[in-house]
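Whether sequence alone determines local backbone shape is best considered at the level of individual chains. When preparing material for the folding task, we compiled for one chain both its residues and its backbone structure tokens. The sequence in question and its structure tokens are set out directly beneath this paragraph.
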Amino acid sequence: MIVLLLLVSAAYAAMRGAPWVPTWKRDLGRIERLAALQPGERFVELGCGTGRVCRYLAQTTDAQTFGVELSVIQWVWANICVILRRPKVAKGSPRLQDPSLSTLAQNDKKRIKIYLGDIFHHNLSSYDVVYLFLMPETYAKLRDKLERELKPGARVITYVWPIPGWTPTTRDRMKGNPDIYTFKKN
């Protein structure tokens, strides 16, 4: 019965936003660069799955990172990854040269929280950067929420597809990789 409930949770999350397809690891550095997170800023990954992006940014920046996931299976896995992970920093990251890297795993656990919840009901007003890798039709459904709740100057990063009706400030292209779009709220 528990397995059935977990599968139903995953299916519902897939129908509500997107099936679980993780952001490619090789694109994490690009996302970090485009997010340009400053110390104390707040980042949220909507539909975070296993939290790959927010976990990475908790390790490579001094920002507070959050994830929101509707599937119980993915949410549990994301939190297990937060608890058990070792520091992993991509080549080229400023953290690679950081002498405190040995304590990074403990410090970044304090800067990350993965919520179990529906992205359509999660308040976005406190975030500086929002990351989305969902289906294009979900972007269209989220557009009004983003416009209504995000504070001026907040940045939105989308993986693979742009937000319909918005003009990106940046379209990051790399041969053989998906496009990454950034938007800034006026």
Summary: Residues 99-104 have pLDDT under 50 and may be disordered. Residues 2-16 form the longest helix (15 residues).
